[in-house]
Amino acid sequence: MEAHSSDSLDIDHLIACLGGDEELSASARATRALLRAREIKTARDLLRLTLMYGPGGLSLRTAAAVAAGGGIADISDVALLKRIGGAASWLELLCAKLLNLAVDGKPRPPQQATEPTGWSGAISLVDASVIKAPGQAANYRLHLRWNARSQCIADARFTPIKAGERLDLLATEPGTLIIADRGYPQPDGLRNTLDRGAHVLVRITWNSLKLKDQDGHPLDWLALCDQARGAGLEMAVTVHKSRGRFQPIPMRLVMIPKPPEGADQGRRKAQRASVKDQRKTIDPRTLACAGFLIVLTSLPQSVTANEILTLYRLRWQVELVFKRLKSLLHLDRLPARDPDLARAWLHAHLLVALIAEHLIAQPDALPP
After folding, report:
1. What element of type H or E holds 249?
2. Residue 167, Cβ neighbours under 10 Å: how many?
């Protein structure tokens, strides 16, 4: 979305999606985003201004000038900074409302391309992406849970970069299969997700977790790689925690050989990482495991290894979501240094993305 005034945004349609002017005003008052009608007199006008500055791509100074010229508000850019920054919690609440609609409202019909074999339940793809702030300001991370069947964002959250990635950070419904990449296999996150009644399917490396076989012995990864050559390998393992009390988690380990070109690419990547980290030697387990896709799952034995691979291949969809958010909504161009203003800018972008999904999900929506 290129820089433009809010006139090109259908503000009436947006407000209708959010419950109308009365409900919008009530939520603005409840979050203290609009307590006194001075320069900005209505929640509708405040929303228009946040969208001008956020996905509209206007600077604070330009947004203030456009607002004055359009009769929206006569306000300085400094005052506008404070008002938009003060609306961050309000925008977050509006996003939460639309996320609830994605869960409780009419879902989009499943697409055939996302209908894998072996698992008929809900499928959520979890990932995160860094959003860089200007200068020395703190960076942020957008965490997403993507519903692979209804093709919509099921949950989203912005955190400071130091919060890291966790499998249990976002809400999870019982019976859902959570699929995530190798940044997510952590004992506590796995335990909490399973305790919520969900299943997990995560990619791992040989040193991601402390794993033991059924006899309680640490895994011999070089021996496993030898066994997995050709037809692959699957076995029962338990997940342990290096420190503190932790009830071991029974899981399935699946190793699937990569095609020769994929294995060569994995080994070259491992060698480049070793050079970058200034390591003199590469652990032989790293080179051996580079030739395999290794996943850990709680799915039952009725879901075969090939079906698990098919399921894991859905994960690319959530990466496309981040690409769309950054290329179409320019979510990667955060201009704000002020923390509250940054939160408002980020949630304004997410709000537009969720409204677009909500409109597409309507039964009479035109196909994309």
Report:
1. strand 249-257
2. 23
11 to each of 20, 21, 264, 283, how far by Cα in Å? 11, 11, 52, 57
Give per-residue pLDDT as tens, 293-316.
999 999 999 999 999 999 999 999
Structure tokens at 310: 């098919």
Would you say 166 and 177 are in contact if contact means Cβ atoms under 8 Å apart?
no
Does an H or E element contain 317, and which? helix 316-328
CA distance 308 to 310: 5
Q: What are phi and psi of 203, to 5 degrees?
A: -80, 145
Q: Strands (DSSP E) along 92-232, which ranges?
A: 123-131, 140-147, 152-160, 177-180, 199-203, 210-212
Say how many C-beta atoms besides its own lie within 10 A of residue 195's C-beta: 9
DSSP state for residue 182 in the 8-state scheme = T
pTM for the structure as a whole:
0.88
Q: In whole angstroms, give the CA distance from residue 330 to residue 324.
A: 9
CA distance 59 to 52: 8
Where does the chain show beta strands of DSSP type E?
123-131, 140-147, 152-160, 177-180, 199-203, 210-212, 233-240, 249-257, 292-297
Tell me if 153 sits within 8 A of 95, measured CB to CB.
no
Neighbours of 155 (CB within 10 A): 21
CA angle 51, 55, 60 (to 5 degrees): 65
Kindly report, residue by residue over 33-82, the tens digit of the pLDDT.
998 778 899 999 999 999 999 999 999 999 999 999 999 999 999 999 99
Query: Please, how many CA atoms are within 13 Å of residue 139, restricted to the half-sphere of its CB?
Result: 13
| β-bridge partners, 253 | 235, 296
Please report, for the chain, the start and end positions of each structural domain, with discontinuous segments joined by +.
6-94+335-360, 117-321
Beta bridge partners of 141: 130, 159
In the block, residue with structure tokens 């039952």? 300
> Which residue from 174, 93, 164, 172 is spatially nearest to 125, judged by alpha carbons?
172
Angle subtended at Cα 223 by Cα 217 and Cα 312, rounded to the nearest 5 degrees:
90
